[in-house]
Design a protein that fits this description.
Layout (H helix, E strand, L loop, with lengths): L2 E4 L3 H12 L4 E4 L2 H10 L1 E5 L4 E4 L5 E3 L12 E4 L6 H11 L5 E5 L5 H8 L4 E7 L3 E5 L2 E4 L5 E4 L2 H12 L4 E4 L2 H12 L1 H8 L3 H5 L2 H21 L14 H5 L3 H7 L13 H7 L10 H10 L5 H11 L9 H7 L3
Parallel strand pairs: 1-2, 1-6, 2-5, 3-10, 6-7, 7-8, 11-12
Antiparallel strand pairs: 3-4, 8-11, 9-10
Helix pairs in contact: 3-4, 7-12, 9-13, 9-15, 13-14
């Protein structure tokens, strides 16, 4: 089983790097600039638990497009691009992959599998969720900054795949209800815009009660919309989803005590949305808060705080940061 990792951001490099360290055949597919950097410097892969490995350039295989590869039906494509690139990736997959080839969407958001399947219907498209955060301290290093695991939809293909992923240090769990897992992850990802607008490391941001109150409001709206839609989100954090807004609203001393497992993370951990804002790139706000707004609209649930967050991220100017109090005010809290 060969793995083809599409998207060389922090997550793609981490997953691909762990597979390569584990001796699996991996091809990394990304933009020319990313490929050139890794082909020159190699890749260092590390994690919160002390793992660290250096991959020399000769141990890595690269391509700048799927069209450069001869993809076999038994190959597995791990799609790690942002939601905004899903349609263009699906078009390339539909042309370059043989019928029945397995494509695993390792992306944030809840709609990517449906979007991929609509454009690439001949491929076997599956959902995956990574419940941890990955950062890139440099262009040649990827680091898992928080605890968590990779979830895959359960079927005969993923049972074999999970064995290989676990053997490579990518802790993997098979799930029967990936819809619940996808919405459970989205609930956690609602911190991404809060973190991006704070311009702080996640651990520092979470110790400010005002930022937590904004996140709690976003999650409360999401939970109300999910309840109306009959969606029961999976528990991916140390506490059940329904408890998260209550935990976030606690005084700092109590939050620190009860959320010790949540706060275990690398000191530099930040959201990918923060990185996107810093570089003036398109963000995934529409896949996160936007998804909550759309779900609420379909089921008659008001989601003004998530709608406000979409507008703030869309109008953000580089170098602008919000204090916790200012963000509460801007989010109408």
């Amino acid at each position: 089983m060969r793995f083809i990792v599409v998207g060389l951001g922090a997550l793609g490099c981490y997953v691909g790097g762990r597979l390569a360290v584990g001796g699996r055949q991996v091809t990394l597919v990304g933009r020319p600039r990313s490929v050139e950097s890794l082909a020159s410097s190699g890749l260092t892969v590390s994690d919160l638990d002390g793992f660290r490995a250096q991959l020399a350039p000769h141990r890595l295989q690269f391509a700048t497009s799927l069209a450069q590869l001869h993809i076999a039906r038994q190959d597995v494509v791990l799609l790690c691009v942002k939601g905004g690139a899903t349609e263009s990736a699906a078009l390339e997959l539909s042309v370059c992959c043989p019928p029945g080839c397995t494509v695993v969407s390792v992306q944030d958001g809840v709609d990517n599998v449906a979007r991929l399947a609509a454009i690439a219907p001949r491929q076997k498209v599956l959902a995956a969720v990574v419940s941890y955060s990955v950062v890139m301290p440099s262009a040649s290093q990827t680091h898992r900054a928080t605890a968590g695991r990779l979830y895959l939809a359960r079927n005969s293909t993923t049972q074999e795949m999970a064995l290989l992923l676990n053997a490579c240090g990518l802790t993997t769990e098979l799930a029967n209800d990936m819809r619940a897992v996808l919405w459970g992850k989205l609930l956690l990802n609602l911190n991404n815009p809060v973190n991006a607008l704070s311009d702080l490391p996640v651990g520092t941001q979470l110790m400010d009660r005002d930022y937590r109150r904004v996140l709690a409001a976003l999650q409360s709206e999401a939970l109300s919309a999910m309840k109306a839609a009959g969606i029961v989100p999976a528990t991916l954090a140390a506490v059940p989803p329904w408890m998260l807004p209550h935990l976030l609203g606690l005084p700092n001393w109590m939050f620190r005590l009860l959320a010790a497992r949540i706060l275990r993370m690398h000191a530099s951990a930040r959201s990918l949305m923060w990185e996107d804002l810093q570089h003036g790139r398109m963000t995934e706000i529409d896949d996160l808060c936007g998804a909550v707004v759309r779900l609420g609209r379909r089921h008659g649930v008001a989601t003004p705080h998530n709608a406000a967050m979409c507008k703030m991220i869309g109008a953000h100017h580089r170098g602008t940061r919000f204090s916790g109090q200012a963000l509460r005010s801007a989010a109408m809290l």
